[in-house]
User: What shape does this take?
Amino acid sequence: MTNQNETKLFPAIFAAGLLSFSGVIVETAMNIIFPVLMKEFHINTATVQWMTTAYILIVSIFVPISAFLKRRFKTRSLFITANLLFIIGLVIDSIAPTFSILLSGRILQGVGTGIALPLMFNIILDWAPENRKATLIGVGTLITAIAPALGPTLGGIVLNSLGWHWIFILLLPLLVISFILGFFSIGQAHDTEKKGFDFFGWVAIILTFVGLTLAFNNLSIIDSKPIQFIGWLLIGLLGLVCFVYQTSHSKRPLINLSIFKNWSFNWHILAFFLIQSIVLGLSFILPNYIQLVDGKSALLAGFFVLPGAAIGALLAPFGGRFMDIFGEARAVLSGAAIVLIAMILFSAFGLVLSGQAILLIYAFLMVGVGIVMANTMTSGLAQLSVFHQADGNAAFTTLQQFAGATGTSLVSAIITLQQDRPIGTMAVNTARGSMYAFILLLAFIVFAIIFLVAALRTRKTA
Assistant: This one.
């Protein structure tokens, strides 16, 4: 790496990270204003959840082709395209008069984020010296992890003072800064390759994520319309089978499936998926619990979850250092153990959580998340060769986004099922649904720990 590239590395990471940051901050700010959107557009919890689900679904569809895009197009061109799409989406949402138009803007933002999100980590993998990659992955994680810390608070403040449209308007200057920094700092590490695109493989990916996401979304009506759930689930599973078959026989696969022959990598990515599902599932549950059960304002809901999210974000860049000092096993397992204890507390007291209790337990949980997340990704990618790391990054980033759709859809469905009960108040039914959702997320962390133990036992030690 030349000195010129060294001086441009941090601005390039920051530019790509700022774009990803904007996508996550809108996502978490939306969770705060869901009750307001439900009243304004006369929709229920399952419908308003599409603001998050549709966005994450679109991101999940585009991230898997990031390895192809990286090899086919110049990195700067990809960044510019992603940035402009996100800006258009923000403009649409800033003036949206109906829920359908609001949703269309989120979809465009999802396309932009889906292209941009892998760019930050690909820039690190391409340009960073080996002895700094773990630290810079932590810094990259910080950029996107700080967004959940600020999102709920930003949503509450803006909602109470300006109105929800301003959440989108206020992000436009950040996107302009990101565009300028990226335009002048993002370079090209490798020559582009004019290879064909596995279109049928991508269609199979779309069927997989659309089918599985809609299946999870239809859990809220499974008692009255079970065919819809089963139908979408079968479509998702069929898409997955078709993707594996097509990719195995394609001369230009979107993702090299040979990375999944490494079982340590597989265990790492499964654990990462479950923990990310917990984090984003809680980002939906907690703000709504504080408002609908405890009767607090959106602003207070944002402030109650701010300390925990901030702790998790600030610990992210230091997670690699923690692993360097104590080793992989102690780092990831201690972080996962903290998440386990926190989820036990949420599940045990799910019916009677006060805002203060949520603040303390969530802050404790995010200490564990800050330690375990970045280290799990770093350790997992370390199991792959340099040639396969772009594919590994695409796999991690894809499942990270799909985890959001999975976590939020599942907990939303569980809560909606309880809210629709003919007996009990909205507050009581929301609390009961939240408790059941906490128990599901508790099961997730138990399985994540099992997977992490398996990953550590089979990892490369050289």
User: Anything to note?
Assistant: The first helix runs from residue 3 to 41. The chain has two domains: 3-197+252-458, 198-251.
